[in-house]
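Appendix C reproduces, verbatim, an entry submitted by the partner laboratory led by Prof. M.T., so that reviewers can inspect both the input and the predicted structure.
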Amino acid sequence: MNTKNNNEAAPQGQDFDRLNRDWFIDKAVQVLVFLGGISAIVFIIGIFVFISKE
């Protein structure tokens, strides 16, 4: 289904499937945001546990 003769909106001469520095930076930021979200959820649950024990 994926053909190389596809002349849609992609600029010619650029390979968008490469794993370059920008891809690694994007993945690192995604991991940091994901871990930050998980830690925030754990922190909120910890607050509720602490309040319910007091």
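The chain has one helix and no strands. Additional entries are available on request from the coordinating office.
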